[in-house]
Write a structure and sequence with these properties.
With about 80 residues, this protein is of the alpha+beta class. It has one domain: Trypsin Inhibitor V, subunit A (Trypsin Inhibitor V, Chain A), CATH 3.30.10. It is about 15% helix and about 25% strand. The protein has one helix and four strands. Strands 1, 2, 3 and 4 form a four-stranded mixed beta sheet that branches. Strand 2 and strand 3 form a beta hairpin. The protein starts with about 25 loop residues before the first helix and ends with a strand.
Length: about 80
């Protein structure tokens, strides 16, 4: 048995379902608290985005409700 079996595994958060329905700026602040090094990009829900996987990028897909950009889909790392 190797020493690494005893090392605690730290799981980093990769999605934020709790921010769906929030204003985009509030959601961005919440995500930044947990992942301060991330590049966060706010885009309309139907926008095309890059398909390459980047662990430092998070898209926030929004729908505008009453003039306020609101999170429409769960933001995820990628």
């Amino acid at each position: 048995m190797s020493w690494w079996y005893n090392v605690p595994r730290i799981r980093k958060k990769t999605s934020w379902p709790e921010v769906v329905g929030m204003p985009a700026d509030e959601a961005e602040n919440i995500i930044r608290k947990g992942k301060p090094d991330a590049t966060i990009i706010v885009v309309p829900e139907d926008s095309p985005v890059f398909n390459d996987l980047r662990t430092d990028r998070i898209y926030i897909f929004v729908d505008t409700i009453a003039g306020v950009p609101t999170v429409a889909l769960t933001p995820r790392v990628g």
